[in-house]
Amino acid sequence: MDIYRRKRFWKWGLFLAGLLIVAASLLFTNNLVKKIAADERKKVSIWAQAIQQKANLVNYTNDFFKKVEEEELKRVEIWAEATKRLINAGINEDLSFYTQIIAGNTTIPVVLTDEGNNIIAAKNVDFSIDSIHVLADTLLQVFSKNPPIVVSYGSMTNYLYYKESLLFSDLREVLNDLTESFFSEVVINSASVPVVIVDSSKTKVFSFGNVSAEIIGDATELQHLIQEMESQNPPITIQFEGQEKKYIFYKDSYLLTQLRYYPYIQFFVIGIFLLAAYVLFSITRKAEQNKVWVGMAKETAHQLGTPISSMLAWLDFMDVDEKNKIYIEELRNDILRLQGVSARFSNIGSAPDLPPISLAEAVYRSAQYIRARSSKRIQINILFPENEESIIPLNENLFGWAMENLMKNAIDAMNGEGTIQINMIKTPKHITLDISDTGKGFTKSQYKAVFRPGYTTKKRGWGLGLTLTRRIVEEYHNGRLFVLSSAPGKGTTFRMILPIK
Fold first, then answer.
1. Treating both helix axes as pointing N-terminal to C-terminal, what angle do 396-413 and 325-347 enclose, rounded to 10 degrees?
2. Residue 381 has what pLDDT?
3. Which of 67, 195, 300, 368 is geometrically suited to a Cys-Cys bond with 190, CB 3.0 to 4.6 A?
4. H/E element holding 359?
């Protein structure tokens, strides 16, 4: 099996195998990422549920304290009513029940004052009546939350002030501490989850975690962040007794975000690697081909040089016979032609001279050479005059080689009978030559294949003619050569584009 001829199939096979490997790798990685992401999202969900449950617990505790406060107020009211009735009781009234209620007060702070708010007695308070003699200022405000009980002794009137019990005050402090610590615990326990706690207007930030302070300090960036968080997860609403509503916004952790984009990044990196490998391989292969071309051409020119020199020397020693003179001249012309061929091979691999030459004249000379060496059944029609103004930088020796290859291929495609037509199209920057034949043609899938080294439809062909022709046009003349059109049984048109400067 000719591997070189079938390299297109090998390329596609290797390409498909590479795609399968990449697809399998991406599929495995993607599944792994999905599992990790699901686990991460589960943790975030558990965290959000825990926050919600703790918020519910704080709210429940707050409601419980409120009920305790109501019960405490009832106790205070019972104690105050007992005190009032004890003071206003008659002589024969049983006072044991009232005294029992009053004596059982061990938690309710009470202060007895005269009409001038001078302190007469106090119980369950956190200050000494020896140092504070008047109920005034802040102390009066604290004890004035409930109206005082009026105590009358004949013409004398005293006032009994009281406030919530010490036990309930302790409970209130615990509740306040619990409420204040809730938000800090939300941030601390958020792990890797970015979280922001804001008010109902979404402008005031109470606390935040795993978010840059610069974003929090920038109102625009903060709103973008909140919108992003809200698009991912609904906010957790928190409202404690006596406080405004607060909203806990959160989003996926940075790890989860990175995992989500990881397969695409991996695909991009693998793609860049494969592309770089392919480009490097192509450049290396092309460099090797160039070395082979140059080496083969130089060696061919070297091998041709010795016999050509010898043949020229023998011609000089031959007698000029009138009968053989015409044959000797033709032989001399062919030897000179061989010298031109040798010069063509010598130019391969070197920067050729590109003097300004008339392209039309060069085309006519190439056509004349092919006419003299082809069947009379081959017609070569040039659709522009020889004196057409078409001066471009051109190496006529190499260009003639390219034109001869194209016309020889056309003659082979027409099986020695048909028409070759050459047309010229001029633009301000380029001159285009269209070389058409009436040969057997080929399918569109072969448009690029015909230029590959080794590709040929002839039994004895090497498949190098069109490859060499394209190299002459594109590498040495900075032009382009491609198949303009072709179809089985309808002939082929090659287009050559050459720059004017």
1. 110
2. 94
3. 195
4. helix 359-372
